[in-house]
Amino acid sequence: MAFDRIKMPDIRKYFKKNKSGRPKFKLNSIFNLRFVLILVIIAAIMIPLCLGGIVIAKSYAKKAMEDIIIEVKGQGNLLAADIASSSYVNTLNSQIVDAELDQMTYTYSARILIVNDNGIIVKDTYDYETGKIIISEQILSALKGNVSDKYDTRTGVADISLPIYNEDNDASIIGVINITMTYGKVVDMTTYIKGIIVTIILVAAMIAIVCAFLVSNVIVRPLGKLSGSIDFVTDGAKARQIEEKSFYEYRKIACSVNRMLDKIKVVDDSREEFVANVSHELKTPMASMRVLAEALLSMDDAPVETYREFMDDIVSEIDRENEIINDLLTLVKADRADAELNISTVNVNELVEHVLKRLNPIAESKDVELIMESFRPFAAEIDEVKMTLAITNIIENAIKYNRTNGSVRVSVNADHKYFYITVTDTGIGIPKEYIDRVFDRFYRVDKARSRETGGTGLGLSITRSIIIMHKGSIKLYSKENEGTTFTIRVTMDRPEVIYCDQA
Fold this sequence. Notes:
By secondary structure, the protein is α+β, with helices and mostly antiparallel strands. Helix content is about 55%, strand content about 20%. It has 3 domains: about 1-230, Beta-Lactamase (2-Layer Sandwich), CATH 3.30.450.20; about 240-335, Helix Hairpins; about 340-500, Heat Shock Protein 90 (2-Layer Sandwich), CATH 3.30.565.
């Protein structure tokens, strides 16, 4: 992405006008990603620069002061030797010492005091305190033979005290040289350096702000596109794929959103197909009843048997209409997110036996044998009514689409966590290309044959919804002309219901 194509964000959006017409900063603006990124980038650039500038200025001042103090100490030691050799402490008569004092005073902007061993100031280059007694910790320390110095980086003032040893006896101290000086040049140079650093910081701040806006644009712009695409779908438009060309994290989000959009498309397509199927399924009985009614109306002197036959057909179509509506209502209830389960402890073996007993007359009419295999008795926490409906739908399908003299084998088993119900028939089987769609609403492998058996095409969809409500699973294996096997797995314990506000 080229920077010249990036537009600087309008900062006016972070402000709103109050009643007086003056702009007022919106506090909630600080919580958007762009603002946070700008602050972080600016802080990341400015904080190290500021800290580095402070360290550099202080380091320079400290090093310059230390160098000057060393230099002054050296000059002071030479001066102390000349004072000792000329007996200047007692006579104050030495042109060499006077010249050295004047030179040091001028060079270092210093005030120099010469103190004798009694603490009396015998020489003050400023002529303020000559003849006075001075008592200080530094002077006393120097009279003991210690060289002391202290300096203040804020004021640029240094105070150095050097002992003056007797030329004839190095062990004896005849006085002290006290040098007080200002670091004028150091302070000036430090101030100059600080000015340069401040200038660099200000320039860096401008660069940081520009970079922050550019980087925030690069990072936030893809998120804006993502948000726009989501809003596009939210407003009712058809889902469109989001371009997955950006940062890794954005690509992950875009990929997830695209998968969601694909699912939405599938749901939309399924909904459209569902509505079309519902319309078709409901229209068919209505159309049949209309044809029958119009046929009756066209007959002037139709016999009673004909009227009875036609009315029987109309009643059959009404029953079929009611069956479709009831299945639709059952399916809608099962698909609801807040659908409730009336959980109770149920003997699954007895439940399956009851279903087989109720379906046995249908099986006998089709010459189909029902076989039950139970490996051990057990009970589970399930909704008895809904689970009965689910099992009934599967076994009833196995009977309807079976062969003459065929069989339906129902196996019931359980372990420590799940119970399993397997329904195997010897029927016509399902072609491989149709297996993935048998749970779709209104889907029939053989539509003509399904109508003959009276099915609505909703039974397996209802079954799957019920199993999912129980946090279970249903799998299908089928081979054409050999038979079909459904396997249900459901937890033995009470299924946990997860509501939307807890997710």
